[in-house]
Amino acid sequence: MWPGALLTLLLCSSLEAQENSFTINNINMVILPDQEVQNGENMTLQCNVDISTTSHVRPQHRVLFYKDDVLFRNVSSTEMTESYIIPQARVYDSGTYKCTVVLNNKVKTTPEYEVLVRGVPPPRVMLDKKEVIEGGVVMINCSVPEEKGPVHFTIEKVNLETREVKSKRKKSSPNQNSVTLAFTVEEQERVIYFQCKASIISLRHMETSENTKSDMVTVRESFSSPKFYVYPEGPILEGTPMHINCTIQVAHMATVFPEIIIQKDKAIVAHSRQGNVATYSAMATVEHNGNYTCKVETSQISKVSSIVVNITELFSKPKLESSATRLDQGDSLHLWCATSGATADNFTIQKGEMIVSQSSSFGKRASVWDSGIYTCVAGIGKVFKKSNTVRITVCEMLSKPRIFYDSKSEVIKGQTVEVNCQSINGTSPISYHLLKASDTLESRTVNSNEPAVFRDNPTEDAEYQCKANNCHSNSEMTSELLLVKVIAPVAEVKLSILNKMVESGEEIVLRCSVNKASGPITYKFYKEKEVRPFHEVTLNDTQAIWFTTQASVKQEGQYYCTASNRANLAPNILKSNILTVKVFLAPWKKGLIAVVVIVVIIALLVLGARCYFRKKAKAKQMPVEMSRPAVPLLTSNNEKVLSDSSPEANRPYGYNDDIGNHATKPINENKEPLTLDVEYTEVEVNSLEPQEDFMENRYSRTEGSLDGT
Questions:
Q1: One-character DSSP codes across 431-442
Q2: Quick one: which of 49, 158, 149, 28 has its CA closest to 91?
Q3: Based on CB atoms within 10 Å of each CB, which residue in 260, 324, 364, 668 is the most buried?
């Protein structure tokens, strides 16, 4: 029944809301007692709304509370004021607040209000113990239960007597409101306490609490300060047995014994890890005078005490002297030892660990083997003292240094040559000086009899010499001269000719030259586009010449040459410039050729003309012979002359092909004429050339006699 009635009421309210009109006139928020409150005070947030309606009943609306834009309360109400109470406000309640009213589909929000909570509650400090030994650890817990993280804690350890802060540590707790820290108790701390304060960031402010003190912590000594005891008491004379003790008292609470260390200056002379005493025992000497320190240490605690010990000297430290510290081999070596105060019972002079004399002096003729460090030991009873050290150097004279280099490999210009200087005999260190052409090139000191190695890059033949000296008083020794032959590679090749235009029949001379290169040099002459050289020669000269005495057109072309020696490897053989040589004919040869050509042309023309006229004469002879009757020729005896069967016999004597078949010449102008009866015949031949007309008019008729009269 109740659910049905509630449903009916809601439906009615909904229908009424749809029928009535509503508007939100105003909305605001009030913070009580103020927007800034002290930590622990109560704070109330009031959201006030003013709504107008046509209904007689107050409309129901929703009120929403926000902190830093995060919804933390949502309530439905018909009241004009809705409140939210924050009991005992804390720093974490600081922030920006606002409220929103929702009425049907209408929403209205207040401005944002900044709330600040001032102050932090005093933190609580808890200790895990109230009594601890030196070097022990105390655990401190500091917390602010009322607040939420993040919280920043500062914890200090304070000496109760001096109120001095012995140590200070800071730690932040991002998600919790407490921290736990461990503090180590140091030496000489008797009563201590701890104090803690908490800091929280609120909006743009840092809120800090007051310091909270812990309970007092009592510190017990784990061991006492060390004490010295020296035996015998009073003045101590050299040679007397001496004992130095360092003792401590260890607390019953200590779990381990500390280490006891006795030092003289910085040197450890005695130590103990078990028990409460460390002892240093020795026969007293002057060297035992000085300050002694006793240190007692654990991992955390260290305590120190000191004492000064004085020893009375029985006799002074012996002093060793020598006639000279540097001697030449064969000089006299003399050493002596002396003390002041009481006279020593015995002396020994030693070279290293070897005894060379059991008296206070030592002398001999010096040799190389006498070089070394000498000391003297003097003693009275059981007290022995060692003297100062004396270094004796006996110098052996140097042998004549030899100078050499690796002659198996040739020295090429620009490459490095290693010159060695060595004295086989002589005391080191040895100073070598390398000279090149009387000038000092470099100096080097060698601490043995091994050769000194010098490096140089000669560009031409050079002479080297080395000088050597050592500690010997004699003057320096000089080596022999060393001649180093330097092979200069071919750096430039040039091909030249006296005249690039050569007359045929004259000589061609090609000159291939190089710079200052070392011989023997191989020269090769090439004609362009030919793989093999046409001339090759090896000379100890910087030039090579090829020539031919009779130049011809075959020698015309482009030429170049190459030159190389032992310093030029196959890929580095240099090639000269290219010369173009032209061969031309002599003027008289050109004239002769022109004459021959002209003669040949004339001969060809004459031969052509002869052939032409011969053909034309044959063409004219054929109609004349056809129109003339055959008349036999008679001799003087009226005999008929028979025709020869050959073609020549049918021709009149003296027939000329060049003139024509119609003309005749006398058989013999020097003989008597023969009278013959010849029939007159007139022939007309049309000629196209004037010369032929002239010839026809001249020879168109013949008389009765063969001589032409």
A1: EEEEEETTEEEE
A2: 149
A3: 260
